[in-house]
Amino acid sequence: MFLIKFSFLLISANVVITFGEQSQKFFRSDYEKYLPETDSFYKVHGLPKTFDRAKETCEIEGAELFYPVDEDEAKAMITYWKEKQFFSSIYIGVSAPFVPEVYQTIHGASIDTVYNKWAKGEPNNHAGNEHCLTLLDDTTLNDINCDTTKSFICKKRASAIHWNLLCDLPDKRYEYVEQLGRCYKFHTNPRNWTEAFRACNAEQGYLAIIDSQGEADHLVNVTKMAKKDDVEGNYLRGAIHLGFVKKNSMWRSIMGRPLKSLGYKTWGTNQPDGGDRENCGSMFFNGKLNDIGCNQQCFFICEREIPLLENSINLRFGDYDDVQ
């Protein structure tokens, strides 16, 4: 089974737009490696991260942390990462999360059911603190401290792709809003502003920017309908991260435009009030804007332009270079 993006028409605001047909197998443009043998797509992440952050990064992209199912896949990925840049080893999606030396894949299967060719003398659980695994460039495995930072590969099985036609991406949780001509996704896993920005970017979107009263009203409704009341943890209730920040004493959208030049600039009562302590943007649940500490954890909303027209973001926000 593989994905073909079919052509269709989207009619909105008296504009007829046609999606092009994708004749080849496709997940995301940054997942450039496809293996017919595994019917899967792969992406090398060269920036080293801890095991948990590597796993999370793949999940945010709608994929999973790679682990080899057999020696052929192991060799293929070693060749792939050497084509990109040299690593002596990468994290794989196998660890011992519960009991030392009882290694399981990210799917909960025993390592004995997948590729398990160990390096000489491994695993040794050095200092009793090596619970994650790496694939070495000689095709063997080694156990390692999970807090060590390593490069890694994300994998997406073609059979697991469910294409969102209206939003033109492989994430069904984005909702197309015809009146606004864009797609939105409410995230109920609280993050700080930087992490929220990174998550939206990984999903091929951006932190939502309110550009009209109609858009504000929609985001208020999205927030009201979100299944957020039972979310536990230490985060700020009542606020949603949005895509604007204070730079050089001026509030700007993440597209560069001064907030005062956008179509919506309604602050909450006595806001902004945080001075230099609150340099990131958010909105209250009622849609009014609020300044917030960039390290504050809260919900967030991602927005996505439908990439049918070249420079579609510029059509909405203008040329970023004009505001530098």
From TrEMBL:
InterPro entries: C-type_lectin-like, C-type_lectin-like/link_sf, C-type_lectin/snaclec_domain, C-type_lectin_CS, CTDL_fold. Keywords: Disulfide bond, Signal. Pfam families: Lectin_C. It comes from the Eukaryota. Residues 1-18 form the signal peptide. Residues 42-155, 179-303 form the C-type lectin domain. CDD domains: CLECT. Transmembrane segments: none annotated. This is C-type lectin domain-containing protein.
